[in-house]
Amino acid sequence: MRFRFIGAIILAALAVSATAQPNPDAATAFARARHLRHGINASEWFAQSADYSAARTDRYTDAQDIALMAHLGFDHVRLSIDANALEQSFAGASGPNADFLARLDRTVDTILANGLAVQIDLHPTDEFKQQLRGGDSGVARLTALWRKLAAHYANRDPDRVFFEILNEPEVDDAFRWAGIQAHVAAAIRQVAPRHTLIATAANYSNLHDLLKLEPLADGNVIYTFHFYEPHEFTHQGASWGVAWWNSTHNIPYPVPNLVTNISANPSAYLTANPSVSASTQSLLDEVPDLADRSDLEDYFLSGWNAQHIQALIDEAADWARAHRVALLCNEFGAYRAYADPASRATWISDTRTALESDNIGWTMWDYRGGFGVVTKQDGQPAQVDESIVKALGLSGR
């Protein structure tokens, strides 16, 4: 049975690779993608937490927050959902997660009632995703969960409810992930034939992996990628990911192109701009390891600016045009704790502008978390960061 199941995954991947012609169902995906032009991630609410009790979820983000999302001008919400809590609720387990699904239903319906579309984003823990890297059990678990989840929401408006197969799969074997994704998509189709799926590439859904992805045979699919380039800026001070990010603070964006400016006339440039060398060295000194410091130095030498970001986003748009598929960037943002606010707003504006110039819808990460567009205490009204609203090109309804 094990080899038969893995063989089915491999055959599914081969079928995906053999699909060269655009599927006529893609017209539906393109039409529905118009509901996903400028959205917001509702993170750390029904996912990414150790506590999914009603006492917490009812206060973390509430109906007033959803109304505010609509008021600010967002047109959709990406709703992250923890797989373990969802499984427990489907199984009728007792305890704080027993009514998890009922509370999730109220949230989805409140989002829709506010005129917003919703991405049902299965956003499991790393432990859940580790099971997908080898063997059958993790694939069977993911497929079974999606059969239940898709059937549960199959009666919701297919024009405004989207099923995202998996957030950042963390499967580094792209061929294996293609087979898994095709297998799960087929299972969803059996119970929810009308809804549009959201699919992604292997690993962490980054741009590089998107460019290697072959679309599914199913045409009613929107493809997504995540964009946090350059991480040296967007993740400065972060306590997760690459360890040395935690050491960095106040890294500027954009940065002057030191290679171009210095090589033209090194002596004259440094004489006219003495603070450039001094401030850059001060930031580099925050990173003690020489190899890590070299990575940060590359950031300053690369001249990151709006044109640099646009060139990368253009690559994603070229991929989508080549495959004739709809494309979405459903995560982008910059960690706010240690970033200069003006630099952060500029990066968000440049990235959003680049996406829009290529007609790619976007979903900012996130509403009230560490990358948020608002600050909020549980149970209290949210405080809007107007500079980020402006950077997103939103003016409210």
Q: Counting H and I runs of at least 4 residues, what is the number of helices?
A: 18
Helix share bin: 40-55%
Question: From the 3D coordinates, which CATH architecture would you assign?
Answer: Alpha-Beta Barrel
The fraction of residues in strands falls at 5-15%
Alpha carbon gap, first and last residue: 55 Å
Main beta sheet strand tally, sense and closure? 8 strands, parallel, barrel
Query: Would you give the CATH topology?
Result: TIM Barrel
CATH superfamily: Glycosidases
Shape: globular
The top-level CATH class is: Alpha Beta
Specify Rg, calculated over alpha carbons. 22 Å
Record the strand order, biggest sheet: 1-2-3-4-5-6-7-8
Question: What's the β-strand tally?
Answer: 10
Number of domains: 1
Average predicted local confidence, pLDDT: 90
List unreliable stretches of 5+ residues.
10-20, 259-263
What kind of assembly state do the chains in view correspond to? single chain
Compressed to H and E, one letter per element, the order equals HHEHHEHHEHHEHEHEHHHHHHEHEEEH
Structural class: alpha/beta
List keywords for this structure.
397 residues; alpha/beta; TIM Barrel; 10 strands; globular
Explain how this protein is built.
It is a single chain. This protein has a single domain, classed as TIM Barrel (Alpha-Beta Barrel). Helices cover 47% and strands 13% of the residues. The chain has helices at residues 2-17, 26-32, 54-60, 63-72, 83-90, 100-113, 126-130, 137-152, 174-191, 207-210, 231-234, 258-264, 266-272, 274-284, 290-301, 306-323, 341-357, 386-391; strands spanning 38-46, 76-81, 117-122, 161-164, 197-200, 221-227, 326-332, 361-364, 374-375, 383-384. The strands form two sheets. It has an eight-stranded parallel barrel, surrounded by six helices. Strands 9-10 form a two-stranded antiparallel sheet.
